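dude i think i finally got it to work??
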Amino acid sequence: VSEPPLSAAQEAVNQVASAIMDISNGVTWWTSEGSETFHSTISEEPYLNNLMQQLFSVIQNLQKAVDRHIFHFKLYDFLWKDDMHTQFYEFISADPGTRAIKREVERLLNIEQKVLDIPLVLPVGPICLHTSPIRDALHGFSIAWKTKYAQVLHEDAKKMLDNAILYRSNVLNRLSLDVKTLDQLNSALNLLQELQDMENKIDDIYLPIETMYENLREYKLRLPRNEVQEVEQLREKWQELIELSEQVRYKLLKEQRGAFEQELDKQVKNFVVEVIQFRNSFDAQGPAVPGVRPEEAVMRLRDFQERFALYDAKRRTLDSVSRLFGIVPKPFPELDKTGEELDLLGLLYGLFQKFIA
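look at this
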């Protein structure tokens, strides 16, 4: 629909043409027959009459050309006629996958660009069609459709970014902790090894995030400034984290090595005594003591399994720290023997419990 309609434009042309002709009524001259107006003379001119007839229909004759331009806009009727939310949820409920979503976003982006390519003024003969009202409206609708589908890609990218930031933040907090015990030392050195391994695959983590946000920018989406900054600073902050880890490594393995080696030697000696006491307790009060009822044996088994798990975890810590300092881990055969016996008793009493159940 054009506003104002062509009929209004034609009426304006008619009024202007008639007004120009009416001016001649005020022009008179004397002839042999007396006073005459200029209008009476020119109104009898065939050329002028033909010209007036053309002017009285010049605009209406452009109706077909105008209709063709208006018909072109019908290609975008779906933007405002169709239910965007319903179509979106039907599309997403079919689990189309990331590639299909990208194709749909790119299709809608192409439609948005075609809308922007519509000239602001369409000349049709002596008149001009100003398209800005409908062009702006269609542009707004096309952005809404594109954003609706692109938000799925944005949410996926945001989750990946959040996970990367959360991991970096957790590592930073752990690197900032004071290391005082061997357990803390073992945990810190394992973290440093983890970071060293991560350095070899950080591209596999960061590159997809950077690529997804680059695509979102190509889709002309409005992205939060803090997200864009976080993506831009991913590698810079990762490098800062790696530099901090090297400082922590130097501090633990160089500056504090002597103190930790002394603590390791002390704890290994104490652990030897603890293991002997645990074995003696197992022999005297364990589930395999003769005369113990099966129900009581099951309870003792659980108790010693829990205690063994604690001793075994401590032994692994001592072994790990020993290796880090180039020291051969001290064997604990009594602890190994107790673990094996607990495994066998666990199988035996597992069958017993299954049978009585």
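The radius of gyration is 44 Å.
im so relieved honestly
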